[in-house]
Amino acid sequence: MSALTTDLDDVDALLVADRDGLLRAAAMAGAGVRAVSQAQAEGVLERLADLRPRALVVVTGNDAVARRAADLVVATVAPRIDVPIAVSPLLPGWIGPLDVVVIIGDDAGDPALGDAAMRALRRRAELVVAVPIEGPLTDAVGTQPIVDLSPRLAVDARFSFCRFVAALVAVCTALAAVRLAPAPPALAEVADRLDDEAAADHPAQESFHNQAKLLALRVADRSVAWAGDTAGAAALAAHAAAVTFAVAGSVSQAATEPVVAAHLRASGPAAAATDQLFYDPDFDPPRAGAFRGIVFTTTARAWHAERRLAAFSDVDVVAEQATGAEPTTQVELGAGEPPADTPADLAAYLVLALRAELAAVFVRLMGEAA
């Protein structure tokens, strides 16, 4: 049975199909960010307040989710902070006492993370641990002073993206002696927005008003290319493609907006010949070989993205606010001027990340319910 023939508004069927508790696990993104915010309030990061480090080095080990989270922070924060941010799966050899090292991931047994912690402390770098402190990592850290941002809630590792981003943002904002302008949004506020998104995307909310269900209906049973109109949105698109595969087993790809437009342009005549005047891509079965482009952006830049892609019927511009909502502000772009990320965009990107994760769960459950 095609996934699209399953009624997403059959709440009982979805809940029965969710044997692994994926809906609840994905919806805990706000709780994970709030836990980092609570660590901030408790003064866990005060050790970093007076530092002006030579570099902020993020070690992700073998954790692909952590790497994508670091890529998003680099795209949005790195151009606005007066300290270089380096991301690596292993600890670089040049680390010394003037550096801040953040190890981030979900696997305390990852030898790359344990080695990075041990060598960073040996070289007297400031160490931030955003990994569960257990097993081999406990031995590597020992009793030496660290900044402990280890997770306070157990969450499915596939849904750690928002928490990882929050941990890295917390480290950047804790460096009070380093200029960062504009400042990222407060993590407590981000957590509230994530909780609001999870509530709006609850399985009991009908598809007409549920943005995660609408996104799931757009991508299920299609060849999908996820893209973004900026470097930060592209990092978000890469996460959406990866989590859709990890959760729903749907193979898709991350691409740039021009690549998506070029593909649609190349297939335009054939697509136009088969297009039906009253075809509804959200509720009608997919056409054979159907291709869908999903382009992430912010509400302030959505108007520009929609104008650039208006000629294509098989591409959706997805922003934090629902389609048709009036943005509170709109970015003014000059002719040929590319859109740019700012730290203020992080809240919107994390809301979209949660929406993509919940959409992936809905795609998975459509198949399970079938």
What characteristics describe this protein?
about 375 residues; alpha/beta; Rossmann fold; five-stranded parallel beta sheet; four-stranded parallel beta sheet; about 45% helix; globular; disordered N terminus; TobH protein; SIS_dom_sf
- Roughly how many Å apart are the termini? 6 Å
CATH topology of the largest domain: the name is Rossmann fold
Count, helices: 14
* Secondary-structure element order, N to C: HHHEHEEHEHEHHHEHEHHEHEH
Strand content: 5-15%
- Report strand order across the widest sheet: 2-1-3-4-5
Number of separate structural domains = 2
Main beta-sheet annotation: 5 strands, parallel
Secondary-structure arrangement, i.e. CATH architecture of the largest domain: 3-Layer(aba) Sandwich
- Ranges where pLDDT stays below 50 over 5 or more residues in a row are 1-5, 269-277
CATH superfamily of the largest domain: Glucose-6-phosphate isomerase like protein, domain 1
Protein name: TobH protein
InterPro entries: SIS_dom_sf
Organism: Gordonia hydrophobica
How are the SSEs ordered, and which strands pair?
Elements: H1 11-17, H2 22-27, H3 29-41, E1 55-59, H4 64-76, E2 85-88, E3 99-104, H5 111-122, E4 126-130, H6 136-141, E5 147-148, H7 161-174, H8 187-200, H9 211-219, E6 223-228, H10 231-248, E7 253-254, H11 257-266, H12 268-274, E8 291-296, H13 299-308, E9 315-318, H14 346-369
Parallel strand pairs: 1-2, 1-3, 3-4, 4-5, 6-7, 6-8, 8-9
Helix pairs in contact: 1-14, 3-7, 3-8, 4-7, 4-10, 8-14, 9-14, 10-14
